[in-house]
Amino acid sequence: MNHGFFTIISREEFVRKLKGFVPLDAETADLSLALNRVLADDLIAPHDWPLLDRSCMDGYAVNARDVFGAGESNPGYLECVAALPIDRLPDISLKPGECARIATGGILPDGADGVVMVEHTHAMEDDDTGGTIEIRRSAAPGENVMQRGEDAREGKVALAKGTVMRPQEIGLAAALGFETMKLARRPRVGILSTGDELIPTHQTPVPGQVRDVNTHSLAALVEQAGGVPVPYGIVKDDLEHLSDALGTAIRDNDLVLLSGGSSIGVRDLTVQTIEAMNGAEILAHGVAISPGKPTILGRVGTKPVLGLPGQVTSALVVMHVLILPLIRHLQGDGLAFDRTVRTLRKAELARNLPSKPGREDYVRIRLEEREGQPPLAHPVLGKSGLLRTIVQAHGLACIPAESEGFYGNDLIDVWII
Amino acid sequence: MNHGFFTIISREEFVRKLKGFVPLDAETADLSLALNRVLADDLIAPHDWPLLDRSCMDGYAVNARDVFGAGESNPGYLECVAALPIDRLPDISLKPGECARIATGGILPDGADGVVMVEHTHAMEDDDTGGTIEIRRSAAPGENVMQRGEDAREGKVALAKGTVMRPQEIGLAAALGFETMKLARRPRVGILSTGDELIPTHQTPVPGQVRDVNTHSLAALVEQAGGVPVPYGIVKDDLEHLSDALGTAIRDNDLVLLSGGSSIGVRDLTVQTIEAMNGAEILAHGVAISPGKPTILGRVGTKPVLGLPGQVTSALVVMHVLILPLIRHLQGDGLAFDRTVRTLRKAELARNLPSKPGREDYVRIRLEEREGQPPLAHPVLGKSGLLRTIVQAHGLACIPAESEGFYGNDLIDVWII
């Protein structure tokens, strides 16, 4: 497709090119730093977990045969021979007609194969460790018991390479004794802002000047995706300064974002600067999404370099649609580009939302909550150079490239950002 | 409701008690640390933003009157009198019949009130800064122009107290020159594990011993909600040791989590320990959710203390349902307890899912993706002391307290965790 200025490719094609970049190498990282990161090696269980059969409940360890048919109206009676310690192997063995007091987590003694919850029992004597226990419910073999090896088996993969470490995976790693593990490195993401009109946040703009917004928004987004933002500040928009800064950024980072180049001159300069690097190639001059069309994808050596649209809203949309998934992909996250990982809410469109076929449209949406119904989705229209529209928005509606838009009252997915 | 062991309250009532805790005080924090945190004061715009009318496009600044009715078949012709600098106030004034080359972000000169995109123009002469320009489209006044003050007006609230700082709000704050701002403090969350059977992760368990899983999983969850986890490690489960450790944790933190106390003895000890603190009160002995029933809520002075179920899955569910919202609430997030902030996915239940009315059930769900249809939701049943079930699960299905469950093929919401 030629739009007069540059050749643009579809989002699918752009994503294919992004997927061509190889995930980063691994590093050994502490368990406390693993949240949301990706395992770079299988975690092999060093032992069964649980080590032995354990009780899931407070109650009495029994042999299922001894309580067969027990119920409220026909309780069984067992002799309690011990209160089992929670932290040691029981040193007793249950004989027929016997039971033992057991706490949640306690190991079943020999001769026991099930647990009756304390709620379904009654101690006939006022004696903690002994006496006759009325059993008001039966227990099948294995009932209320965590079996040896149910969580992990010695020598087997407990968590596979590529697993994203959620709090529960962190728990399993801790249970198996992994204080450190191999994780894909967090990509270092160099952020360069270009534009002679830009000034740092602490300066006061005179007419014509604009504070550097993108560095801050992009850094926050990079962080959100698990990358390490490395801001380089504002770079003068001439070939020499930009080449120097880009060279440094590429050397010291895994991915470089250039922002500020939305006007044609700066776009051209961005392309020129990337092309001038050693081993560089421009992979895309644009992508068929709106906003976000003038996005440049380059490769310098093995590293991706992206020229983002200068308009802040466009840059944010491109970050969400393309770059945050790339940052996850570089960490080895197999679902990085999978849209099922987006946070979506169903909402009823408040009015017609037409769209030009041939490009994917991302329309900012403000949600109006309603009692007992899906929220109402109000498109927030406005210029993409303004922040107000995206600040007012709760999310984005994505209109597929082949669609001419949605109708008012359509139930649509709003991607919460 | 009395369940034989302790009085439990509904989730709604439990949440009401959590909401009674007062959000934390504010601190001055750097913009780079603001992501997902909550503004503790209004941000008042120190100046209009944009400072003046700016172009949204590359093109020609025009007076709308001069291009009225222009189109592909009847273009207008204007004399380009300047290429405007992007970083300074233009020093020209357009006369009738004149236009000026303008870049995205450039300030409109006097006499101009609209911009025609460069795509809709043609320079008749090979001259960057002058010559006759063919104008092939009209421009309404204000077209392709960001108006002065559209993003923020001097002296007015640009971002209100209580706003959660997303990347776009961070951008707006940067645009207005805020390098620091007042944010609610991140709650320090003390994490204590009790249980004589617990050992630290680096030790190898002998039968009866269990590595301390909860400290690691809870710390990750606290981090996820924006809190600062402060793990105290394993505390011996007697009144003296636990009281000492709890006293220190309460002194140095904003919220304390006690975990490990799922067996009756440890539960009783937890209640006893909290009650023994100066100015303490037990607000709830349990909550009508499953898993998670044996959750204790106490107050020591103004600070919440929670006794979590010892079973790791139960503790994780309680964290998601009650404690992560509390951590957000303590930061002043008005939507903290609002279920609309959950990440939900529609899925088709693979089989019947019965539930006991009177309590809210949170059933672990594994999703099976399908092409072109909502994913299939498989309940993952299993003992809540095991990690496997929650590691296999993508999320939770919440069955309301008044419901007797769902049917197979029902379309349900799966809360992704």
Brief rundown of the structure:
The first copy, chain A, is of the alpha/beta class. Chain A is built from seven helices and 28 strands. In chain A, 19% of the residues lie in helices and 30% in strands.
Description of the molecule:
2 copies of one chain form a homodimer. Helices cover 19% and strands 30% of the residues of chain A. The first copy, chain A, is α/β, with parallel strands linked by helices. Chain A has 4 domains: 11-24 and 187-339, Molybdenum Cofactor Biosythetic Enzyme, Chain A (3-Layer(aba) Sandwich), CATH 3.40.980; 31-45 and 151-184, Molybdopterin biosynthesis moea protein, domain 2; 54-146, Molybdopterin biosynthesis moeA protein, domain 3, CATH 2.170.190.11; 342-416, Beta Barrel (Beta-clip), CATH 2.40.340.10. In chain A, the strands form 8 sheets. A 6-stranded mixed beta sheet of chain A has the order 7-4-6-5-9-8, with no helix packed on it. A 6-stranded mixed beta sheet of chain A has the order 16-13-17-21-20-18, sandwiched between helices. In chain A, helix 3 (214-224) runs parallel beside helix 6 and helix 4 (239-252) crosses helix 5 (264-276). The longest helix of chain A is centred in the C-terminal third of the chain and has 19 residues, at 312-330.
